[in-house]
Amino acid sequence: MPRPRTSHLVYLIASLFIVLGGVLAACGGDDEPEGPADDVKIVLQWVVQAQFAGYYVALEKGFYEDENLNVEIQPGGPDILPVQLVAAGAAELAVQPFAVVLSARDQGIDVVAVAQVFERSGYRLVSWADDGITSPEQWGGKKLGVWAGHEMVSATINKYGLTEGSGDDQVELVGQGFDMQLLLERQVDLASAMIYNEFAQLIAAGNPVSDFHVVDFGDHDTNTLEDALLARGEWLDDEDNQDIVTRFLRASAKGWAVCADDPEECVEIVLKYGPALPRAHQT
Q: pTM of the full predicted structure?
């Protein structure tokens, strides 16, 4: 059971791949960039928050500019699938759970994971403890709040021999927004939550941790890594674009390094770009 006081940014930094220093070293180079800056749009899977702090720090501190990159960061949301924007050529890069990359490739979509940002996922499903839903085997006939790109949910449904739909024994998937109102108002039986985001909203609403049952997909062997950085395969065939990605990764790694060294400064930068969520929600 996740603890309600867990620092969101600390959890995220702890989840970063420990090869961060290796990225900086392997991509190292002191050559001065030449020519006009290369435009790069990266689409996030969610709104501005500490989950994407490294990118905003790299932008704010000029790390991308140092790499001769003109980077635009486009926030996402519950109904946005960044992988589709990348596949359509509307963005060069996107941040999505690795499961989304796998699913897209299974469907013949030409996307490639070029980096893995986090080594573990904070994605969970949450239900009220007094409802007694303690196993996916009990999901038949229940409503689950999900976001776009819910591969782990579907994989768990399949593993336990259930099907998606609105029938009496089926699992009904309901589109969920930015908050946890569907669960708080008991309009769904289980709701999607990141333990560093939406789960904290439940606690902030005055509910003790003991009021909830949390589904950790790792307990069911249906979890995947979180926050892969992806690009379109055909775009990556161009060596110039491979160089763009190398420079982007180098600058982004420096941004995450700042967050590891100075979380308070990191939070200040995130709040500058996304003031909608309070400081307490980001730290």
A: 0.79
